[in-house]
Every structure is written in C-alpha cells, then in structure tokens.
Amino acid sequence: MTTEQVIRMTQELFLVSLLVALPALAVSLIVGLVVSLFQTVTSIQDQTLSYVPRIVLVGLAIVVTLGITLQQAAEFARRMIGYAAGAGQ
Questions:
Q1: CA nearest 76: which of 4, 9, 3, 6?
Q2: Residues 6 or more apart from 24 whose CB is under 8 A from it?
Q3: Cβ pair 12, 79 in contact under 8 A
Q4: Contact 39, 45 (CB under 8 A)
Q5: What is the mean pLDDT of the chain?
Q6: Residues near 23 by Cβ (< 8 Å), separated by ≥ 6?
Q7: Of 17, 27, 35, 81, which cross-links 61 as Cys (Cβ 3.0–4.6 Å)?
Q8: What's the pLDDT at 75?
C-alpha cells in the first residue's frame, strides 16, 4: 500500500465522519443559539434549560437522517474492506 493510498483513505475517513456527524452537530448548534437567545431576551439564567430541547431535537435529527448516514457509513466500510483485500494480495 502506497503513501498516496493511505492519505486518500484517511481523507475519506474524515469526510465520511464529517458527513455522518454534521446533521446532529448542526441541529445542536442551532438549538443552542436559539435557546441562548431566548434566555438572553427573557433573562432566564437556568443552565439546564438548553439540555432538554437539544437532546430531543438532536435525537430527532439522528432518526430523520439515519438512512442517509447509515448508507454513507456502509459504503465507506465496503470501500475500506476493498482496500484491505487489495492490500493483502
């Protein structure tokens, strides 16, 4: 296995990781900003207020995007198994 192949595999790993995690991270960021804005406007300083909506909406985002992310992860696993089979020859 050449250095270029290892670099390409590592790039694919980071890209797929980002694509799989992106929906949950984006929803968490947006919910956090909205809750922070709400807390600022209403002067509510309860730190636990942001956890429940964030957990619920991130869970919902994971469920909604599960098909796409699972497909991405499975395709990545197939490619990596193909690389491993090719390296063993």
A1: 9
A2: 58, 61, 62
A3: yes
A4: yes
A5: 90
A6: 61, 62, 64, 65, 69
A7: 27
A8: 94
Dist. CA 62–CA 88, nearest whole Å? 36
Whether 39 and 51 have beta carbons less than 8 Å apart is answered as no
DSSP string, the chain: --HHHHHHHHHHHHHHHHHHHHHHHHHHHHHHHHHHHHHHHHT---GGGGHHHHHHHHHHHHHHTHHHHHHHHHHHHHHHHHHHHHHT-
pLDDT of residue 72: 93
Structure tokens at 14: 């980071």
Helix 51-64 vs helix 3-42: angle between axes, to the nearest 10 degrees? 140
